[in-house]
From TrEMBL:
Residue ranges, annotated region (Disordered): 43-68, 413-433
GO molecular function, one term: phosphatidylinositol-4,5-bisphosphate 5-phosphatase activity
InterPro entries: C2_dom, C2_domain_sf, Endo/exonu/phosph_ase_sf, IP5, IPPc
Organism of derivation: Phytophthora megakarya
PROSITE patterns cross-referenced by the UniProt entry: C2
Protein name per Swiss-Prot or TrEMBL: Phosphatidylinositol-3,4,5-trisphosphate 5-phosphatase
Superkingdom, natural source: Eukaryota
Amino acid sequence: MPPKDSKLLNDWIPEGGGDFDVIAVGLQESTYKRGKVSENLVGTDSWHASGSKADDSDEDENYTDVPTLDNKSSDVIVKRSRTKKSMRKMTRIVRQLSNNLRDTKGDPLDYPFGKQIYVHLGESYVLAGKVELMEMRLFVYVHERNNVCEVEKTATPTGLGSVIGNKGGLILKCVVDNTSLCFASCHLAAHQDQKFLDKRNSDCATILGSHFGQKNVSIDHQFDHCFWFGDLNYRVDLNYRVDLNYTAHRKRNHEKHCAEVMTLVRAKKWAVLNQNDQLKHQVEGKKALTGWELPSALFPPTFKRVRHTLDEYLLERVPSYCDRILYKSLPGLRSNIKLQHFSCYESIATSDHKPIAAAFHVGRTSPIRSGTVEKSTLVEISDLAGKDLLGLDLAGLSDPYIKFYSTPTKAVQVDTNGSHPSTSTISKTRSPKWRDDQVPKLHVLCDNERDAKAIHLTLVVMDYDAASKDDLMGVASVSLEKFCQSRPRFIPFEVQVVLHGKGAGTITGKIRVTLPGQAAPPAAEEQYIRVAGCHCTLS
């Protein structure tokens, strides 16, 4: 619930926006209205939290409400069901509501908390875009001094049957001063046990696999910088030991588990709590959000708090860092982003979650001049191979080939019908090796070293299927920066293949970049080295 006093927002969101160029706000279970409401709804003070049960219920984990749409606004009103409804009817209602909200177009003033944030930021900030899905909302504001364009957005439900939108992800992409930014505000599956942990990982994969931007390329491989945040619902779990396999070694009952966690909280052992955080285990184990940066939460667990108190916990749930922020950049742009701080704001006590915020300094991405085919940069790949790729056939093998995309898009020349360059298919293997004549030479449409260094190749690994649509096996990104040399030569590379956030093998090889005007060395010069002062040849 938003605070009644807008001054309480100051720490979380600086009044007037501070000196930030972009401010993204993600809200979950956000169904609040001002004023008097229907007697079917439970009100609290001047703000109304629809469908809530004050302090002693976890609406997130005990979802039994049937949503309806208020005809007078785009806000969601949730009424308590007084009769048993069939799941089929509920699914129809929620599907319709999700679709309606996804297509909602309006300004920030059509939702009370949105209006509060809008007024709080002031007239210097413009709402670049918003995405709404049932109780989830994402607002992205950009300061008027900045140029913003190419705004795209989508919503992906991951609730029951991947239809109900009480859980899911909201994605908004925009380009600010030539820097592409992508924001994913998420609300993932709740509860502590393994099957719910697996569902959270599955939710992440579903959201990353949303059809958004380039075909078959997840958001974290096609935009300069991505931010993933919200109520991710991963829990502190002291039943894990911190080792390579992250295997459970002993179980505690709920009361003992809560007591041990609270002992660590009172002692401010934030590092120990973070080491036993499910999300940290999943990221490091390449089971979810592989390659994303997870800042340590050096503050008390944000969930499950007693509303209207500063530091009390409701111990029907294990105190946990459910609310998190992660980020990921393209390989060649990682040095352009710096985390300045990641904090929790205890003074806002109107929810059983404490709000969090992270501030980043992001360097602007330099523009790239579009070149021509006649003056393109040649990219050659040799000794291309895969290792431990996914086996998607019944026999546990695949028929892999690689398609080549790029960031920025259209930097790599495609053929006349728009098809991207691709390798030959290697049959029945998880560790393919391509001959050099099976790998296309790529023409990158730029004619100078500065621009060539800014290009990222996107390797999309596919499984050929003669009888049906080819399956995606994973994606990898390669920055051309280190391959641009004054004297062109083959330089080795190795990259992680990722399928919707999960590790899916590696790709290795060698890359040579030849700019217009540079002459490639003869083949013999690549194969042999002659040592001055002797007549021997090293091969």
